[in-house]
């Protein structure tokens, strides 16, 4: 029995390996190891279409390889993320993501639990969900989405134990969002001030 299981595991492993070797995508859309799936249909999505730019930054490359968003807690990116969120999202989700016609994004209730991972949240923003939550890939490019995600995570006010997107060090450092914080134009960090 044990050997049978072992054989199956090996066979499965080989099958997965096989599918990695045969490229499903042309080299031009190579995306690393993370598969982005539409939140509603589960279909795999590429970053080929949508707003140009913001695809070859270190943050996007790291994200597509590991699923980690290196802009989390970076104040220069939070500054940009706030501004992008206010332009593209707050009209429906509220100024502080407290919810309006769209659901609150600052608490621990998620219609789609996959949004507790940054890959899930990225996919929802890129490809949309139901009804008024259309795809936002024409408004914001991949790098900008990572900045928005950093801001949405920063706005969180729920219990830290449910913040699945934080690693242990980030959980230790967690302070629920309080209104009134301001960011300087020259905030140090990885994100240059937005143009315009
Ligand atoms: C035109 C209004 C509108 C805009 C603009 C909008 N949303 Fe939404 N959003 C909605 C609605 C309505 C839903 C609920 C859809 C559903 O349940 O499928 C939703 C759902 C979501 C969800 C799923 C929440 C959950 O509980 O799982 C996320 C995440 C989200 N929006 C993020 C964003 C972000 C980030 C932006 C800006 C880039 C944005 N939305 C812009 C209306 C909007």
TrEMBL record:
Signal sequence residues: 1-24
Keywords, sorted A to Z: Electron transport, Heme, Iron, Metal-binding, Methanol utilization, Periplasm, Signal, Transport
Compartments where found: Periplasm
Binding positions (heme c): 89, 92-93
Record-linked PROSITE patterns: CYTC
Residue ranges of domain Cytochrome c in the record: 76-156
GO molecular function: electron transfer activity; heme binding; iron ion binding
Gene Ontology CC: one annotated term: periplasmic space
Keyword Transport: yes
PTM comment text: Binds 1 heme c group covalently per subunit.
GO biological process: methanol metabolic process
Segments of this protein annotated with the region Disordered: 177-196
Function: Electron acceptor for MDH. Acts in methanol oxidation.
Identification of the protein by name: Cytochrome c-L
């Amino acid at each position: 029995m044990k050997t049978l299981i072992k054989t199956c595991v090996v066979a499965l492993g080989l099958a997965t390996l096989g599918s990695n070797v045969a490229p499903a995508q042309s080299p031009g859309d190579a995306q690393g190891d993370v598969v982005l799936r539409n939140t509603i249909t589960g279909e795999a999505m590429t970053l080929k279409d949508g707003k140009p730019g913001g695809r070859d930054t270190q943050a996007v490359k790291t994200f597509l390889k590991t699923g980690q968003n290196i802009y989390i807690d970076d104040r220069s990116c939070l500054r940009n993320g706030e501004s992008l969120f206010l332009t593209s999202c707050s009209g429906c989700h509220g100024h502080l993501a407290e919810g309006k016609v769209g659901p609150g994004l600052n608490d621990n209730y998620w219609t789609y639990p996959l949004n507790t991972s940054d890959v899930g949240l990225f996919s929802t923003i890129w490809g949309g969900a139901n009804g008024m939550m259309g795809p936002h890939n024409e408004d914001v490019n991949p790098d900008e989405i990572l900045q928005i995600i950093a801001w949405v995570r920063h706005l969180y006010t729920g219990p830290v134990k449910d913040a699945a997107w934080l690693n242990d060090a980030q959980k230790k450092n967690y302070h629920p969002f309080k209104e009134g914080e301001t960011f300087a134009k020259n905030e140090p960090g990885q994100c240059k001030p937005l143009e315009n």
